[in-house]
Q: What sequence folds into this?
């Protein structure tokens, strides 16, 4: 049985050494109003849980920049969640402002994450060039935007998910010295 | 015969369902002073027209950030042009400030567009890493920077042009619900 | 024999037409405190010298944003060094702030450089998505961040080093007209 942790620190159940808390934030006016079923959010949750994350929060918010920012700050500052994944609001529609909310609350951006996601998606469709998602760090929380379509969200998250754990180790003060560790690698 | 529209909305001539207005802005001190023939601008115009855009404006401006910003704002705020493509001013020369002017006037950046352009150009030359072009949104106008050399401008625009139409549909309130549409795709 | 220049201008020793000054800044708390040998710095220096750069400065600074910014400004404003390469401080650790210092002192960013480095590194490890390095221009100085591990620093610099010379020619006012030159290419 996995111990539920809400402070973002790693719990260490038997046979599971890496576990961080995560939040899934679906950004959608229609989803928020109950006018559309949220398909991407549960899919992202499932992917995170399969990778060993403890999804401590899953919410749907409208495409309002101030509301998205407040939710991101709550996850980072109050709940100390390690990984916050948003889905939706990354396109060109006038209401798509998830990247702008993310930039506003992060103190350090991680441009390699959206680059890797878009590069992977570009192999499938040239429309991937239109996604505007960002990733960045606020306090000890990594925030990663995904597109809103379930298919694109799955592709995008899949492209970077295996690497995120290492980022969280660096961010959350893993005991081992990462740079020294890297130097001893082949 | 195609109906000329200047409000950025799609005209719908027979057999041509997608048409947006476009502007081509050549950024070049020498071109602006009449000391060099503008080759990139007409080439970009031709590419846009072949794709079905109505080029409603084509101008040459000097490499002055304030002048470029004013021109971009005129296209977006006054002429309501759907797609503004600039060529030139994206390199390392001290006078190359087109990306800075673009960042200054856009409220939402679209980093996937220059990423896709550079990734495509990198297949041809490693000097593509030196191009600093940006893309972003101001009101209902998408602004895309291209390098100044005709060859690089053609390569770069060709890498993203087929996808831009979909971005403009999202931006300008196409009737169909894009997210729902995406979800129903295979 | 190579003439040492400290004003960032090209010296022209026999058989060596391209030479710019460079600085190597190792960003590391432990390296700065003498608690760890700096392996990446000397490796970067060697790569730069092999490419024909005159390494006029090599220092180790702690992971303090203000200290990094001062060092970058000294290299650009006082020493007029053409190419400043940093190594370290580009990860997710709370003390990793080299990209933020770089953004703070640069007036024009060059996003294609870190994109090209990460795209190359992604072929080797998906952890490359976690590197946050930036590149940008301050006055006539190009600043390029590299990761701190010697292996990653070598891979990253190798991906862009052959192109940087052309960027510095544009930046430092090479006599030839780059755009015209490009146009005459096949």
A:
């Amino acid at each position: 049985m996995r111990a539920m942790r809400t402070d973002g620190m790693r719990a260490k159940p038997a046979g599971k050494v890496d576990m961080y808390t995560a939040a899934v934030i679906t950004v959608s006016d229609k989803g928020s109003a109950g006018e559309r079923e949220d398909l991407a959010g549960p899919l992202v949750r499932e992917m995170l849980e399969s990778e060993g994350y403890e999804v401590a929060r899953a919410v749907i918010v409208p495409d309002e920049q101030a509301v998205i920012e407040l939710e991101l700050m709550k996850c980072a500052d109050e709940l100390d969640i390690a990984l916050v994944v948003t889905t939706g609001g990354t396109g060109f529609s006038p209401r798509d402002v998830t990247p702008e909310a993310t930039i506003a609350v992060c103190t350090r951006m991680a441009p390699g994450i959206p680059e890797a996601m878009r590069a992977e998606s570009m192999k499938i469709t040239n429309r991937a060039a239109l996604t505007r998602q960002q990733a960045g760090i606020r306090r000890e929380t990594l925030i990663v935007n995904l597109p809103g379509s379930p298919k694109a969200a799955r592709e995008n998250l899949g492209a970077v998910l295996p690497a995120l754990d290492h980022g969280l180790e660096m961010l959350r003060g893993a005991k081992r010295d990462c740079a020294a560790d890297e130097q001893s690698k082949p």
